[in-house]
Amino acid sequence: PLSREELIQKLDDALTQSRFEHVLRVEQMAIELAKRNGEDIEKASVAGLCHDYAKQRPDDDFLEVIKKYHLDDLLLHYGNAIWHGEVGYLLVQDELGVTDIDILNSIKHHTTGAKYMSKLEQIVYMADYIEMGRDFPGVEDARKITFNDLADGVAYQTKHTLEFLISENKPVYPKTIDTYNAWVNGSN
Ligand code: DGI
Ligand code: FE
Ligand code: FE
Ligand code: FE
């Protein structure tokens, strides 16, 4: 596997400066949440660093991976916002040599969440939302809630993201609804 230094170099090459700085902050927040929740620090570091690796790739790169791996045609109705995680984790696997399935799932699910999320998946989903560079109304509440209880943080983000998508008339990916039903409504 690549060392942290080698990973950092690849990410610096793949991302804009501001996106690169975001992934470094997500790494720091993922490590903080891992410490608070008894999760593996090294895995949190790698997952935090790699979560947005594919964010700046052209659409054609994702379409190629969708074809190569025979992924669900449903993906074709969405775009980069969904692809960079849901498809991008395969680029992290193939290009960065990450093999740990928990890390790969954390990257896959970092935008939409999922019905079932491991501790590490929850950590990356939340670290992306509350990293110290984020400043949206409610981010302080989100940090407080997440530091107190990771699953409560997942519910908070999921509810607010769904409200945001609806208010903007954006298409909601089915997995985002699954996450809502499992983590917010709880009756799934
Ligand atoms: O990559 P980041 O900007 O760090 O953050 P992200 O990957 O969590 O989210 C990227 C965007 O994706 C964000 O504006 C919210 C949006 N998003 C989340 N769920 C859905 C979605 N967009 C659509 N269209 N559908 C979804 O279900
Ligand atoms: Fe992302
Ligand atoms: Fe996110
Ligand atoms: Fe991100």
Structural description of this entry:
68% of the residues lie in helices and 0% in strands. The mean pLDDT is 97. It has 188 residues and is mainly α. It has one domain: Hypothetical protein af1432 (Orthogonal Bundle), CATH 1.10.3210.10. The site of one fe (iii) ion (FE) has 5 residues, from helix 2. Keywords: Hydrolase, Iron, Metal-binding, Nucleotide-binding. Residues 19-133 form the HD domain. It catalyses: P(1),P(4)-bis(5'-adenosyl) tetraphosphate + H2O = 2 ADP + 2 H(+).
Task: Compute the average pLDDT.
Answer: 97
Write down the CATH class: Mainly Alpha
Task: Count up the domains.
Answer: 1
- Kindly report the name of the CATH homologous superfamily: Hypothetical protein af1432
Number of beta-strand segments: 0
Radius of gyration: 16 Å
Query: What fraction strand?
Result: under 5%
Shape: globular
Give the CATH architecture: Orthogonal Bundle
Q: What ions, cofactors and ligands are bound?
A: 2'-deoxyguanosine-5'-diphosphate, fe (iii) ion
